[in-house]
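User: Hello, beginner here. Can you help me understand these amino acid letters and fold codes? It all follows right here:
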Amino acid sequence: SACAPTPDRVPQEVASARAYCELSADAFCDYYQRCDRMAEDTHAACRSTFIETCEGAYEPRYVALEDRGELALSATGLATCAEHLRTVSCETQLNDLDGACDAVWVGQVGEGGACGLGIESFVCDPDTTCVLGLDFCGTCEATVPVGSACGPDARCTSDASCVEGTCVADAQVGETCSDAQPCRIGAQCVQGTCTSYETVGLGE
């Protein structure tokens, strides 16, 4: 990585990043088909497409970060994510690694370490968040919990926003929102309610 992260923590219970696509395919395909988020008619076709895409576009990056000791795949997180995807509302789960699925990957880089854009932002450990610069390289900065004072030197966690100097938990899809109660990333505030963006197919 051009941002050159430095490993900080040792993983606890882990699986191999090289097995991520195979291990997660069934859970995600069940969810994709239930929520109409992949244009495949059968689970088998979805699984084949998912694994091909995942192994081509994402897994190599996860493996590289794992090999550098910056990221760990949590076996417990995978199981928790699979259970979550079985019942989560399609409108609530805006992105694959939202909600309980955010525990699938566990960052190993502590406060002051380097991080980057996209997957490289996952390297920050659970007590920090990746703050990017204009060059898209970033630093893992410590976070403060909901209800705490926040500002340039005190960052809220990724599921909260700094509103008038205090960390406020982001409203989820279907919940009330306002200037004082922002929606979570990926949702919009429409007439006082957090709403997900509509997903449409090709040609629609």
